[in-house]
């Protein structure tokens, strides 16, 4: 299994679809599709960092062809704030999509 297939499987274990994931991270679906089809090595650093941040995985490891979770050291308040920001972003993106 390629790293791109592993990445896609990880996304689909956490999101209902690639499209939902791309909406959540504010990336064009076609960009994500291209990354999956053509390889992570062809993606921009910005997009790799967006993907890794959303999935909480190491960008360095991904470049080496591995998916390794990043241990986070945050206090509960910042984690709660991050979750609220994600929820708000999802609502805004869904509203935009419906308009």
Kindly describe this structure.
The chain is mostly helical. 69% of the residues lie in helices and 0% in strands. It is built from six helices and no strands. The relative contact order is 0.13. The model has no long low-confidence stretch (mean pLDDT 88).
In terms of topology, how is this protein built?
Elements: H1 3-14, H2 18-24, H3 29-38, H4 45-55, H5 59-63, H6 76-98
Keywords:
single chain, 99 residues, mainly alpha
Rg value: 14 Å
- Helix % is 55-70%
The fraction of residues assigned to DSSP E strands is under 5%
Average predicted confidence as pLDDT: 88
Distance between the termini: 39 Å
Number of strands: 0
Number of helices: 6
Topology order in helix (H) and strand (E) letters: HHHHHH
What class, by secondary structure content? Answer: mainly alpha
What is the gist of this entry?
Helix content is 69%, strand content 0%. It is built from six helices and no strands.
């Amino acid at each position: 299994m390629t790293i791109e297939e592993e990445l896609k499987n990880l996304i689909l274990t956490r999101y209902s679809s690639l499209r939902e994931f791309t909406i959540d991270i504010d990336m064009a679906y076609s960009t994500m599709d291209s990354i999956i089809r053509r390889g992570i090595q062809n993606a921009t650093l910005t997009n790799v960092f967006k993907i890794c941040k959303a999935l909480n995985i190491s960008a360095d490891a991904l470049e080496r062809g591995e998916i390794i979770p990043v241990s986070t050291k945050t206090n509960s308040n910042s984690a709660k704030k991050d979750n609220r920001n994600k929820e708000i972003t999802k609502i805004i993106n869904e509203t935009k999509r419906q308009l």
